[in-house]
Each structure stands twice: as C-alpha cells, then as structure tokens.
Design brief:
It contains 3 helices and 12 strands. By secondary structure, the protein is mainly β. The longest helix has 15 residues. The N and C termini lie far apart (49 Å). The C terminus is likely disordered.
C-alpha cells in the first residue's frame, strides 16, 4: 500500500510440475503468448539443457507446408484454441536455393479476418496468430498474438477524399520508412488496391494505446525488384481523421 495504487502489467503462468508451456498475458493488448517450458533443476537451472538437433535445414530436410500446418493445427486442437477470427493458415516463406540453408525454427501464420476481410498491420504485413515450430522435432515451441478477449465497438466517421487517399499512398502510407542511401531516387509503381482492415495503434496521452481496426486500402508495390523498400504494400486508412492525423511517410 505504501507504493500507491498498483495493477498487474503482465501475468505469467507456468506448469506447476513437469514440462509444458508457459502462458503470458498482456492486458494492454489483451493478448496471450505461449512458450515451451522445461522444468529447471540443479543441473539445468534454466530448464533448457536438452540435447536437441539445432543444425540448419537444407532443401532435403525442409518439411512440407502440409506437415508444418498439421503440427500447428494439432497443437491448437490440444489447447482448445478458438479460431473464430482466423482464416486458413500458411507457412511463412523461406527461400531455399541450391546449397542454401535456413534456421531450424519455422513459423505458421493464421491470418486475422474481420467481416470477411483480412487484417494487416499499418506497415503492410498480415496480422494473425504466429506459431513457431522446431522443424527437427516437429514440435510447437511458441505461439504469439492470441487474443484472450476482445470487445469491438464500431463507430461512424467521415471518409477521406480520393485526393487525400492518393496523396498518402504517394507518401508511402502511414508507417515511416527509411532508405539506406538518402541520395538515391527510385520510382515505385502501385497496383490496384484491395479493401482490408488496418490495425492501427492509437496512443493516448498516458502512453497506452488502443488498437483501431480501420477500413483501408492495401496498395501492392509492383516494381521493387531490388527490395529497396521495406515492404511489399502501402496501407492507407479510409477514415479522414486517420489520414489527416498521420505524419507524412517521408523516405529519407
């Protein structure tokens, strides 16, 4: 009591005995993450003294998408996860060329959907639950961005004009970006946009934030063959307030 009014910022639960998964709850985002847990001991105080195969994967040892998704689906069935807001999973892409190697940890993403439309972060990536899998053991070692509970409130608002939408698209959307070479000028072509929901963090004066899910246009970048830009898409919200209050995405 001498420290004043307090509240829990995070909650962490772990198995009382034996191996399993820890559960971490973040009340600010109302999200849960799961992580593989092994019981600490005197010989192994951190609980990770296990002789696992950590060698890099090659084209010959790389599991198929179907195998990885089957492991992830079985895990979700085991923990009884509600997948109401999740659409069909996909394996995050890893390029394997001749003689190349990739890390042993692979991930499967279950994209969020609202009203039948995909949800993207403001920088363009698709939002969703991400499941990490140890490809050697074919075992889930963690899962992130599982919503514990969400109460959505809809609101009406004036829409941005076509001129405002195009101007923000030309500036790169709502997320700042940075070029490696500030003297280089590159023209990027944008394709026909699709209608999505953009997850935008609306910060308060107290440093906390609320997640807004705003209708937005997702513009694909068509000609970034040298991967000069930081993403593959440009996101422009359709609410006038979000467009007018967003700083210009100056590429510097």
């Amino acid at each position: 009591n001498s420290l004043g009014e307090m509240e829990a910022a995070y909650t962490n639960l772990q198995p009382a005995d034996g191996d399993g998964y820890t559960v971490n709850y973040d009340p600010s985002s109302k999200s849960i993450s799961l992580s593989e847990f092994h019981t600490p001991s005197k010989e192994c105080p951190w609980g990770m003294c296990i002789d696992w195969d950590t060698s890099m994967l090659t084209a010959d040892t790389f599991p198929s998408d179907e195998e990885l998704i089957a492991v992830s689906d079985a895990f979700f069935d085991e923990v009884d996860l509600d997948k109401t807001l999740l659409s069909e999973p996909y394996v995050n892409e890893y390029f394997i060329g001749e003689g190349s190697e990739v890390d042993t940890i692979l991930s499967v993403t279950y994209p969020f959907e609202m009203d039948g439309k995909p949800v993207h972060y403001s920088w363009g990536g698709q939002a969703g639950v991400t499941v990490s899998i140890d490809a050697h053991r074919m075992k889930v070692i963690g899962a992130n961005w599982i919503y514990a509970s969400q109460n959505f409130e809809s609101s009406s608002y004036p829409g941005a004009s076509s001129e405002e939408i195009l101007a923000m698209a030309e500036q790169g959307g709502v997320t700042p970006a940075q070029w490696e070479d500030p003297t280089q000028v590159v023209n990027l072509d944008l394709g026909t946009p699709t209608l999505i929901y953009a997850q935008i963090q609306d910060y308060t004066e107290f440093g906390t934030y609320n997640d807004l899910y705003a209708p937005a246009y997702l513009f694909p970048i068509l000609n970034d063959t040298q991967d000069l830009y930081y993403g593959d898409f440009v996101v422009v919200p359709l609410a006038e307030e979000l467009v007018s209050n967003s700083p210009p995405n100056i590429l510097y």
